[in-house]
Amino acid sequence: TRQIQNRKMIEVVLAIICTEAFTELLVHSKILEPLRTLAEKREFTGTLVNCGYCVSVWVAFLWTLLLIPSSPLYTLVWTLVVQRGANFLNDFADRYLREPFAAADKFFEQS
Hints:
flat, mainly alpha, 0% strand, 111 residues
């Protein structure tokens, strides 16, 4: 039914937003820097925590399990959909939100 389809779409959008937000926190936030420093002591986890693209796959998988329960095959498909959506959202935020504000901050610091 239409109501179920709308709910599924809301779940996917929520999973995309949550994936982007949590990936950003894990890879760039100061509050989680000690965790990243600890993870960097091992080669695999060190590489993982410094790669937003890599982290977003695992974060998308977790949000897919929580928000979009389905069969194993669809879980894989939804994970990839959510992960790519989160990457597009991150690219949009970088280009249209973060970069202009960073440029303005740099301008005002020099003044």
